[in-house]
Design brief:
The protein is α/β, with parallel strands linked by helices and 510 residues long. The protein is built from six helices and 34 strands. The protein folds into four domains: 130 residues, Alpha-Beta Horseshoe (Leucine-rich repeat, LRR (right-handed beta-alpha superhelix)), CATH 3.80.10.10; 171 residues, Leucine-rich repeat, LRR (right-handed beta-alpha superhelix); 54 residues; 124 residues, no CATH class. The chain is 18% helix and 24% strand. The longest helix has 52 residues. This is Receptor-like protein kinase HSL1.
Amino acid sequence: MNRLDGAIPEDLFHAPRLETLHIYANALTGPVPESVAKAPSLLELRLFANSLNGTLPADLGRNTPLVCLDISDNAISGEIPPGICDRGELEELLMLDNRLSGRIPDALGRCRRLRRVRLSNNRLAGDVPDAVWGLPHMSLLELNDNLLTGQISPVIAGAANLSKLVLSNNRLTGAIPSEIGSVSKLYELSAGGNMLSGPLPSSLGGLAELGRLVLRNNSLSGQLLRGIESWKKLSELNLADNGFTGSIPPELGDLPVLNDLDLSGNELSGEVPVQLENLNLNQFNVSNNQLHGPLPPQYATEAYRGSFLGNPALCGEIARLCGGDSQSRKNFHSGFAWMMRSIFLFAAAILVAGVAWFYRRYRTFSRSKLRADRSKWTLTSFHKLSFSEYEILDCLDEDNVIGSGASGKVYKAVLSNGEVEAVERGGEPVQTGRTTVSGEIDYFVYVGNIYENDYGRTVFVPDTNHLRDVILNCFYDDWRSRSKLPQIVYLRLSCSIGRAQILGVRSYQV
């Protein structure tokens, strides 16, 4: 380890006898030089743990008899060169922790000497070539943390030397092939975080070298394997977050070195086998299943509380773990929810009652004010009416408003004789030609059948006897022409009627 920085010199690979170049764990930057693809004798190139970027030379491997290429832990992008193993000598291909994309080259399946392939933590996508699964000398295949799809090929039966298969956090689908039971040297199978489905193949139980089996967070189903006596070296079994059913196999208690057991998040039922007391577990989790019955005494302690949560029918010496305790908690939460609902309803009732009381007081005040004011009103009509002014005045309430005109609001009035009338109340001075009806005429009422469009009746409700004022205003222009008084009286009487028509909004005949 040194502190070399800068770019790798292009002419470094021009040396005709250069076979090995180790400049890993430095601070080198820039791309891998194109000249590396033309180094005729280069066998081993280790550039890992630098800050190299860019893409790899497209011809890398075609003219160079590479045996080992390690560019891990850089920022190299682009695709894996398709001819990386054209010379057929490649044994180690280590490219983890980069930004590589695209597919795994099909030609990689022809590298019969490959022993170690580490392509994890990149952006590789597509299906893994079938031939890669079954390379005969492969001992390590790490493809985790990519975007790979497809299935684990049955060709894996040919991987006679495969010891570690890591496929976690991809998008693999389908069932685990039964041919995996032929991989007799398999020590680790890690394929969590995929979309694998179906049951576990029974052949998996015959792998005597199996030490780690991690298949969590898939869609596997069926029952857990029986006949697992061969798992003498199994130290970790993680099948959490799948859809396994049935009971927990008592045979698990006979595995001598098992110290990590996680079966949580499934649909397992039955009791926790007492045989599990034979294990010396550092990690034990069977939570969120459908287990029931008593706990084995060794695990019925507070230290194992988290191991059994989410099994409502599971009982033991751990406080608040049994179904009764669960029911008590459920009753407590139900009671609390009922209390909160009651408080809310009571508050809502108080609010509604307050609004109703305020509205009633407002109505009472409005009617009292109306009754106090109407004693000052005088009704003057143009012809004999079949109703009293009080019937009209009682209807001047905001609840009876049905419209609004230019001179004021329009109210609905139901009279004692059964008629339904429209009443218009005005409060502003009304311009009538050259004459203004003053503010003394505070109110006027127009009455006409709501459903008919015929001539109606006009009723004035002033503070004074205003009709005289209206007629006088009509006479004012020609008051000095006394010689024509009879004609003027007739004409001005028509004038006053016309002005009343304006005040009444509609035209009418007296």
